[in-house]
Amino acid sequence: MAFEHKSVLLNECIDELKIKSNGIYVDGTLGGAGHSYHICKKLDKNGRLIGIDQDKDAIAAASERLREFEENVTIVRSNYCDIQSVLNDINISGVDGILLDLGVSSYQLDTAERGFTYREPDAPLDMRMDDRQTLTAKDIVNTYSEMELYRVIRDYGEDKFAKNIAKHIVKARQTRVIETAGELIELIKNAIPAKMRATGGHPAKRTFQAIRIECNRELEVLNNSIDTMIDLLNPGGRLCIITFHSLEDRIVKNRFKQNENPCTCPSDFPVCVCGKKSKGQVITRKPILPSEEELEYNSRSQSAKLRVFEKCF
């Protein structure tokens, strides 16, 4: 299957990055290079794009897509949480913009053997963004304690039936190893009352999301990376992050706010004495959402939100 993915909020991202033709930009979730292609189109011979992705299929697809810009482009197989070391290795100390698109790509969702989807019952329980990683969804489902599974499904899936789902999983694996998406889906369905399964979309959606987040440490990586990315911006540089669920969006909103106003002094102090200085400003007081036109041709953009932070001059 070809690596195809419709870039979400494409025009909005390109606009908000305020691209300079001779600037240096990082796409931390390169994917099929949909956003990066349009960034490269705005660069002159002195501009540069660094693309980072941990998925080998994405790296291959992006390398082909960006071939015409190869003099401007450096592609690295890594996780965006390692952006500091990636840039150090190529002797870059500051950049003019960074983009993260945190959505799972259409390719990953539609390629059954990657194990991300709950719509392919025979799919293996994998869910790794990076196949060099040892931990898989199968490991989580079959080795985590009932309490650990409950925590993952409750916190990352926000599923009110998390406790019962965890209980059903642990009971089932006493007699067999849970191998496929279909097996897990049946357990989830049995843990949710029939009248509740009829509403709110696919009953396995929240649990699959939770296990994927745990498998790839998605929220931990995001939370631990934002401050570093802001520090790497040149004055006037922008960090643009697209999220797809409330847990991600909350982290981005809170980290942006903290970087804009890090002061810890009591509110009744006449002047700041803590010495913590603002790194910049939040450009998007409310997130930028997909247009009606985009929602019509790309249903997967429905939950997307774009937030933007600009580094101080």
Provide an overview of this structure:
This protein is of the alpha/beta class and 313 residues long. A 7-stranded mixed β-sheet has the order 3-2-1-4-5-7-6, with helices on both faces. The model has no long low-confidence stretch (mean pLDDT 93). Helix 8 crosses helix 9 and helix 12 (218-232) packs parallel to helix 13. The protein has 2 domains: 10-106 and 219-311, Rossmann fold; 108-216, Putative methyltransferase TM0872, insert domain (DNA polymerase, domain 1, Orthogonal Bundle), CATH 1.10.150. It contains 14 helices and 7 strands. Helix content is 42%, strand content 14%.
Please work out how many helical segments DSSP would assign. Answer: 14
Number of strands: 7
CATH homologous superfamily label of the largest domain: Vaccinia Virus protein VP39
Going across the biggest sheet, name each strand in turn.
3-2-1-4-5-7-6
Under the CATH scheme, which architecture of the largest domain would be assigned? 3-Layer(aba) Sandwich
What secondary-structure arrangement, pairings included, does this model have?
Blueprint: H1 10-17, E1 24-27, H2 34-40, E2 48-53, H3 56-65, E3 73-77, H4 83-89, E4 95-101, H5 106-110, H6 137-143, H7 146-157, H8 162-172, H9 181-191, H10 194-197, H11 205-216, H12 218-232, E5 233-243, H13 246-260, E6 280-282, H14 292-297, E7 305-311
Parallel strand pairs: 1-2, 1-4, 2-3, 4-5
Antiparallel strand pairs: 5-7, 6-7
Helix pairs in contact: 7-8, 7-11, 8-9, 12-13
Properties at a glance:
313 residues; alpha/beta; Rossmann fold; DNA polymerase, domain 1; 2 domains; 7-stranded mixed β-sheet; 14 helices; 7 strands; 42% helix; 14% strand
